[in-house]
Amino acid sequence: MTATKAPIPTPRDEIVIPRRRFGGRLAVIVVVVLAAAAAVFLGLAAWGGIFSKDETAPRVTLDVPAEGAKYEGVIEITGSVADQSKLSEFSLVLDGADCTPAFELGGRRTVKFRFKLDTGLLADGRHELAVAAADARGNRAGTQVTFYVENHATVVELAFEPGRVDQGRTLVVKLNANKKLYDLEGKLWDQKFPFYKTADGFTSIVGVRASCPPGEYPVVVAGYDVYDEAVELKGTVTVADGGYIKEKIVITAPDKKKIFDPALEEKKMLEYRKVQGIITRRRDEQLWAGTFAMPAEGRITSPFGTYRTFSTGGESRHLGVDIANKEGTPIRASNRGEVMLAEGLIVRGNTVILDHGRGVFSIYNHLSAVAVEPGQTVEKGQVVGYMGSSGLATGPHVHWEMRVFKWVVAPLQWTKTTFTYRPPEDEEKALQEVERGYEEALAAAPPEAKESTGGHFKAGELIPDMEGAD
Ligand SMILES: [Zn+2]
User: Fold this and answer.
1) Is position 213 within any domain?
2) CB-CB contact of 165 with 94 (8 Å)
3) What pTM does this model have?
4) Residue ranges near ligand 1 (ion) with Cβ within 5 Å
5) What is the distance in angstroms between the CA of the first residue and the CA of the last residue of the chain?
6) Quick one: pLDDT band at residue 35, thresholds 50, 70, 90?
7) What distance in angstroms lies between residue 103's CA and the mean position of ligand 1's atoms?
8) 49 and 131: one domain?
C-alpha cells in the first residue's frame, strides 16, 4: 500500500459529488469509529461562537485516501475539519452513499477524524470519497478524492467460439474477466465490434463478413480496466472459405441501359443509406431468444453469399436467402423484435426491418404488402407482410437478410444455433416466453395487409437481387 500525502485542498462553497462512472452495486461499507474522540478544542474560542460574524467556510482536509492512490486491506481514513465557529455538521460519502459514522461533534471547532475502512468489502477499482462540513453559521465546505482498491489480481482471458469460422458466419468472442472492463472494442480484419456485459465477463456476437478473405486474423480487444488503465488482449481466429457460389452474369446493352440508369443509382444510394441508418443503431436490450425461424414456407431458390460479377464490370454478393412460394404467402417474424421500417423501397421493394436488440436485425424484402407498423413489437412467427415481387425481383419470393452489427451473416446458421448474451437459466426463461408467443402467432389469423406505400419498381426477369456490396 502506497499513499502520498495529498496537498491541502481548497475549501469549496459546496460539495460536488461527481456522477459515478460505474453503475455497480452501491458499496456497503462498515466504518468503525476508531478515535472520534481525538478531537481537540482550540483554546482561543472566547470570541468565537454563533454570535460572531464568521463568514469563512470550514477548512476540510483528507489525508488518506490520497488522490489517485491504490489501496488494499484495511485502511484508515484520516483528515481534519477546522473552523472559527463551532462545527455543526460532518459527513462522509463513499461512492455517492452516505456513510457518516455516528460520532458527536460536541461543539468543537477542530476535529481530527480517523475511521477504519475495510477495502475488502469494496469492489476492486475506482472509488470516490467525499468529506463535507458546516459551521454553526451555515458556512459549508468539502473535499473529495478518487482512489483505487486492488485486493485481487486481474485475470482476463480471450476466447472464441469457434476458433475457426467460415466467411459470413457468426462468431462469439468472449472475455472472461474477474473485474469490470470498460469501453471495450474488438477488431477483426476491417470490422470493429462492441461488447456486452455477461454473467462471467463480456461477450460480442460478431458476424464475420462474407467478403473477408480466408486466412488467419489477429483479433485485438482494447478497453479500460477498473484502474482506468488501458488494457489490450490479442488472439487469433481462422476465417475459412464459406464455399459460396461464384456467378458471372452477362448483361446486354439494352439491359445495361435499363439497370444502370443514373437516376435509379441515386435512388438506390438513398435506400442504402436509409437501411444503414437503421441497422447501425444499438438497442441494449436483447429481444430475441433461442433460434430464428424461417420467415416463410417455400423453396430456397438462391442461397446466401453467391458472388456475382457482371460482364459490364462491377460485382455484388447475394446478402440473403431467397425463399420462393406463391404470391401472398405469409411472411413471419423470425424472432421477437421491434419493427423499425415497414415501407416500399426501390430495390428491396416492400420491406420490413426488425430490430432484435444488441445489433441483431432481420430484413424481409420484395413483399406484396406489409402488415405491421414501425414501433410495433412483434412476436416470433407474427405475420409482418406477404410474399410478393416488389422491387428488383423476378417473381414472388422473400429475400431474408440477417445483420449483426450492420454486417450480413448467413441467416440459416441462426435457425440452427442459439446465439445469446444471457446466462443459461435466463436464456431458458426468455426462450419459454418467446416460444409461447410463437405458438400464439402461428395459431392467430393472418392480419390485413396494409396499403403499400410505393416501391413497385420492377426490373423484369433480369437480376434476382442486387443489394449492392456488403
Ligand atoms: Zn435475395
Assistant:
1) yes
2) no
3) 0.75
4) 320, 322, 399, 465
5) 53
6) very low
7) 74
8) yes
